[in-house]
Amino acid sequence: MEHHTPSSAYVTSLIEAGLEAHQAGRFDSAEAFYREALTLDPAHAKALHYLGVLHHQRGQHALAAQMLSASLELDRTDAACWSNRGLVAAALGHPQEAMICYDQALQLQPDFADARNNFGVALQAQGALEIAVEQYRLALAANPAFVDAYLNLGTALAKLDHYDEALVCYDQAATLDPRSAEAHFNAGNAFQALDRHAEAVASFENALALRPNYAEAHINLGSMVGKLGNYASAESHYRQAVALRPNPTNLVCLGGSLGAQGRLDEEEGFYQRALVLDPTYADAHQNLAWLQLKRGDYARGWASFAKRWRKHDYEAIAVPGIAEWHGESLQGRRILIVGEQGFGDHFQFLRYARVLEQRGATVDVRVREPLVRLVARMPGVHRAFSGAIEHDYDFWVPMMSVPGCVGTELSTIPADLPYVFAESASMEAWRDCMDATDSVSDGNCRVGLVWAGSPTFGNDRYRSIALSNLDSLAGSNGIAWYALQRGAAHGQLADAPAAFRAHDFTASLHDFGDTAALVMNLDLVISVDTAVAHLAAALGKPVWLMLPANADWRWLENRGDSPWYPSMKLFRQTSLGDWTPVVKQVADELRSLRAGKHA
Predict the structure, then answer these.
(1) Could you tell me the residue range of the domain that residue 388 belongs to?
(2) pTM to 2 decimals?
(3) In CATH, what number is assigned to the domain containing residue 354?
(4) What is the pLDDT of residues 431-452, one digit of tens each?
(5) Of 273, 308, 343, which residue sits at a domain end?
């Protein structure tokens, strides 16, 4: 029987037909053509190459690797096959092998833009950003219209904090490909890093106009508008992201936006769903802890809070070589409390130094420099310092983990005030200064005022008050107002009523020790939720705290007092963003206070 060898022209036609189907996205048809070609010629390098690429595009990377490796055994001069083999190696989690493949491709064809770009991606994944930038620039020199190379170059430059250069790359990518949602998305991230919020929002919106199902753009836009205080809009975008991709991150973002709107009954389910997907997801544990603590469920709340750590956050404060304390006996032991989070948190939680001392420990505290002078004077603190750890300890513990370790309940909060003490000499110096500028002989009250916190705080739009919203308090009779406001919001004093401007010594407040000494000469502090409010309360001074409707977890729910600070009175919004009833309530209380003084 005569054997007929298939013509190479026919095999070539099959491969060409496969390529046409492949490029049109008809993968099943393409595979059929490639496999027929290989049935006729099992050693056809191109057919193996293209079938390997198809498997890679389907996510079948191990099979793709076999096909591409077989192709390269037949033809080691195919630069494109080497480059694609590198892509597959990267997809399989073999970065070093990927870079070897890209290097082979570039030795064969130095102006191979795709291989340069892929090599850059592999280098960037290894953290070699500067070298990756060089590869992307070489790719663009070979192909000035290479959109992906512009996008990747922009990403690498952004990681190097060269955001303005990154924006040029994204603009070029969008010019070359007006349909590139990624170009606008990446630009939004760069604008956000530069605090150019309006441009960031516009860029994310442009990305979504081009690709409505872009889950990451919904998340980033939601986060952007949420930081600007528009939690309802954030919720809308998070819901769309969850519908598209219900992963732990997106679920927690949605839950957080509901909590920020005071919809506590709705938020918990999203954290629980996230933890079903990833039981170790730190953000879900932290948000769940805040919700449980806000509701006064301290037993579960502290347990959730103990799991709050992102790896890099924990490593930033951990003390290598020393055991973390989880509640073991402290009799005769040395323990180091390591400060974390904001200044207000320090004033609230360093009360536990005395609790640990009562358990038999010698307690040292590591805090930031502005706190050292005050913290060193707190009961239970053996030594306070900032900087390097120079002594051996039996244990260390994150400051905010201590309540959970000692089993704090609402009824067992250590709230003996004061537990922060100003220096006597400094207090006397402030008294002399204040006596020279106002008169209390006729019964005037000295009242400190703080109207804004740090603008970087996530809920600052609702936590802080514009000083102009408090103008009605300036006319309160018998009040000598003392501005305690520092930071950018201090500038609002320039346009404030004269009563608010009369006593402003903030330029002389160099650290919290100075602030404490001044506060000790006041009768009352009226404040939003800031570190000064915590400090004044820890000093035992009366504090009237003005809270937004979505107040922080530590103030619990629907209470006018705080079990953490017996000298504190809470004034709460009933509608998020509306301070008018709160200010009226404070004004009424001031009149009652003055009436009581004159009674």
Answers:
(1) 328-412
(2) 0.83
(3) 3.40.50
(4) 988 888 775 545 689 999 999 9
(5) 308
